[in-house]
């Protein structure tokens, strides 16, 4: 019987890479991205190995990926990148999964869920500073922040954005995105809104824009 190709995953090398990146990131909190089955390396196995190295925050794309990690016994913080869905709110509360809000309607949905249940999952607000893929627009920032402030029970722990070109040679556009994000933080501060976690850095910006580290850095491909 013919045997197909195999990929041999060395978790000790993943651990080694993690520690190098953590040192490069200046000791900031690390959010290890393990979406898409850990970029094909095995999400559960990679997450457990990184947790043993002290990583206490993991990111996936879908809610189902987060549930898979919880079912595997992962107890550390888990954040979901995809837009939140009302039907996941209750399970997110029960299983301590942090969700993404990226539209004014998401705030309304969370406020409605809290009104019905008295509970709310932790969430991070995504701002589109120039990636043009997901997130509230710069024009909507102030109104959505006011909406969050005025909505009872919303546990908006964090705020973040995503670079489009931080892994490329010309960092002009990335610097414009960073300027936009800092403007958003100034608006939030003027409104009296404080976020305990601010994150913008991805793999490219950890290397090329260390000044954008904020409270945590998200690292995906660089780990692997």
Question: Which characteristics define this entry?
Answer:
42% helix, globular, single chain, 224 residues
Describe what this molecule looks like in 3D.
The chain has 224 residues and is an alpha/beta fold. It is built from nine helices and eight strands. The protein has helices spanning 11-24, 35-39, 43-52, 63-71, 89-94, 104-117, 141-150, 172-190, 203-208; strands spanning 29-33, 57-60, 77-83, 97-101, 122-126, 155-160, 197-199, 216-219. It starts with 10 loop residues before the first helix and ends in a 5-residue tail after the last strand.
Q: What is the end-to-end distance?
A: 32 Å
So what's the overall shape? globular
Which ranges are low-confidence, i.e. pLDDT below 50, for 5 or more consecutive residues?
none
* Major sheet attributes: 8 strands, parallel
DSSP helix count?
A: 9
Please tell me the overall pLDDT.
93
Order of helices and strands: HEHHEHEHEHEHEHEHE
Provide the gyration radius in Å: 18 Å
* % residues in beta strands: 15-25%
Helix and strand content put the structural class at alpha/beta
Q: For the largest sheet, list the strands in their spatial order.
A: 7-6-5-4-3-2-1-8
């Amino acid at each position: 019987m013919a045997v197909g190709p195999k990929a041999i995953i060395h978790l000790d090398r993943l651990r080694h890479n993690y520690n190098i990146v953590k040192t490069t990131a200046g000791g900031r909190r690390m959010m290890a991205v393990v979406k898409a089955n850990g970029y094909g390396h095995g999400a559960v196995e990679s997450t457990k190995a990184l947790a043993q190295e002290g990583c206490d925050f993991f990111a996936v794309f879908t809610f189902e990926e987060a549930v898979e990690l919880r079912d595997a016994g992962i107890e550390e913080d888990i954040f979901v990148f995809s837009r939140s869905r009302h039907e996941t709110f209750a399970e997110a509360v029960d299983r301590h999964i942090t969700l993404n809000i990226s539209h004014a309607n998401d705030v309304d949905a969370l406020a409605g869920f809290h009104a019905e249940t008295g509970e709310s999952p932790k969430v991070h607000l995504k701002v589109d500073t120039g990636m043009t893929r997901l997130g509230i627009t710069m024009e909507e920032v102030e109104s959505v922040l006011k909406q969050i402030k005025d909505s009872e029970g919303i546990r908006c722990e964090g705020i973040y954005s995503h670079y489009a070109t931080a892994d490329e040679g010309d960092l002009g556009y990335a610097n414009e995105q960073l300027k936009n994000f800092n403007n958003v933080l100034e608006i939030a501060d003027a409104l009296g809104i404080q976020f305990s976690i601010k994150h913008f850095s991805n793999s490219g910006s950890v290397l090329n824009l260390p000044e954008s580290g904020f409270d945590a850095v998200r690292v995906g491909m660089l780990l692997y």
